[in-house]
Amino acid sequence: MDRGLPARSLAMRAGSPRSVMPPLVMGILNVTPDSFSDGGRFTMLDDAVARAARMIADGADILDIGGESTRPGATPVGEVEELSRVIPVIEALAARGGVPLSIDTRRSRVARAAMAAGAQMWNDVSALGGDTGSLAAAAELGCRVVLMHMRGEPATMQRDPHYEDVVAEVTSWLAERARVAMSAGVERERIWLDPGIGFGKTLAHNLALLAALDRLVELGFPVLLGASRKGMIRKVDRTAEDPLDRLGGSLAIALAGARARCAMVRVHDVRETAQALKVMAAIDSARDGA
Ligand code: HH2
Predict the structure, then answer these.
(1) Which pLDDT does position 8 carry in this prediction?
(2) Is 118 left (phi over 0), alpha (psi -120 to 50) or beta?
(3) What is the pLDDT of residue 5?
(4) pTM to 2 decimal places
(5) E strands, 24-87, in order
(6) pLDDT at 14
(7) Domains of the chain: which residue ranges?
(8) Atom of ligand 1 nearest to the CA of 30
(9) Can you tell me which atom of ligand 1 is nearest the CA of 68?
(10) I want to staple 67 with a disulfide (CB 3.0 to 4.6 A). Which of 4, 86, 179, 248 is the partner?
(11) How far is residue 181's CA from residue 142's CA, in Å, rounded to a whole number?
């Protein structure tokens, strides 16, 4: 069964003229007590549903629901706990309708339960390497799958990450994961790639990846970019200690993603991002005479 996204997103973003196709906006809904910027704010079902409704009204094309923080140094949660955080929220949001739902999990059992509850996309920061059942589950579920690059584990990934050529290594690693997923039965058109900004990378690594996003886009898979409020913004602007003070940097990165023809940006500030992307698309249209 094709658990596709709506028509706007089904068009293959990679290769589309950027003036016509701004990236989709994925709104982040963390139902965790410890996420780095919004932890503890949406752990009650009503708060999570209200936050989702707000993001949909603000222009989110899809919502990404996560029950485990993967911020640097985060401790993993148990599966039962993760399920109890995300499934009631997905059920409630699926019943209300509105936009497609994505589950942000490294566990195949959580992904399976999320699809049964009404999700359509599996966002996996471990690129289907989280458990031994992940590849088979992705093939069976027939959902869209985000394969993200991460070096190491969240608990330790920021301890002195090292690459010879970060762009080449991340790009070829993701191409290889896509190949592995396809050999396991995941259809090519269901695969999305994500460079994993902040996941086992220094500021220099993150900037190099952002400067060369087109290399990843050129692989021909839709690319998801997630850097909203991340620590790299503080490293560029030392005054932005508080994640809530990183909107300007988050918008700059979303626009860089749009310029490179990324297919989707994963953000906390949906309204501001959607507006920035619309204005940039309008400028591009004026330039291109579209
Ligand atoms: N970043 C985070 C979580 N999931 N998924 C993808 N595909 N790409 C990302 O860059 C990405 C992700 C971390 O951000 P956040 O969800 O805001 O925080 P936390 O992990 O603390 O919940």
Answers:
(1) 53
(2) left
(3) 60
(4) 0.93
(5) 24-30, 62-66
(6) 43
(7) 20-289
(8) 22
(9) 22
(10) 86
(11) 12
